[in-house]
Write a structure and sequence with these properties.
Keywords: Antenna complex, Bacteriochlorophyll, Cell membrane, Chlorophyll, Chromophore, Light-harvesting polypeptide, Magnesium, Membrane, Metal-binding, Transmembrane, Transmembrane helix. The chain is an all-alpha fold. It is built from 2 helices and no strands. It has a domain of 40 residues. Helices cover 54% and strands 0% of the residues.
Length: 68
Amino acid sequence: MATTENVTSSTGLTEAEAKEFHAVYSQSAAGFLAVCAVAHVLAWMWRPFWPGAEGWVMDTAQNLTFLA
């Protein structure tokens, strides 16, 4: 009779290997999503995605007009 350690699925992984792979994959996906969330917050703080009352104004261009 086969033991559970020797039984493999269609992927060729044992139950323990599949659980280990799933844990690493889940942690990697959560880390990636955290980095994406931080990047979006920083981008929002730099330049909001939706225009305010002034519309799409380039603040830097207006502040540097004294050089011209």
